[in-house]
Model the fold of this input.
Amino acid sequence: MWPSPVTLNGQHAVLEMLRTDHARDLAEAVADGDLHTLWYTTVPAPQQVSEEIERRLGLMAAGSMLPFAVLDPGGRAVGMTTYMNIDAEAHRVEIGSTWYRKAVQRTPLNTECKLMLLTHAFEVLDCIAVEFRTHEMNLQSRRAIERLGAKLDGVLRNHMVLANGTLRDTAVYSVIAGEWPAVKANLAFRLGRASC
Done:
């Protein structure tokens, strides 16, 4: 299996493989800010968290996703993230299906999670590129991706149909291997300033 299951440890967060026993914390986390009510995201409702965990674990078994629970320093699950759309032959992954409880958004936790995932992707998995995708109208997510140093590759128009029946235009960003040293330096700098 590529990539193999792994736990990534940081000062502000731990990324561990998603398990069914994370469901209680994650149901509480998704209720913080009613994240599931944002029409342009696909965050599960609190009562759907267990089903979403099972879906992600099924994709992991099929080799197309490596799902993580995002833990705060106290060990409480405060969100989810994944390596997804895995292309083992080309050594490409997407970091996506990410959400965090409102209380930890725009804190060092997100920056550190992205730094850990990107470091693992480029320095352990030897990826040639890492993608990020989001709804074109999800400006908060787009700004966060851009702050990482990812570049806009383009917009896939009418890319998918959302649960509410609307069509999603998907903004596709990436970091390529040659850009990684500068992106890493930027993330480390931002994390150091945020941690002060």
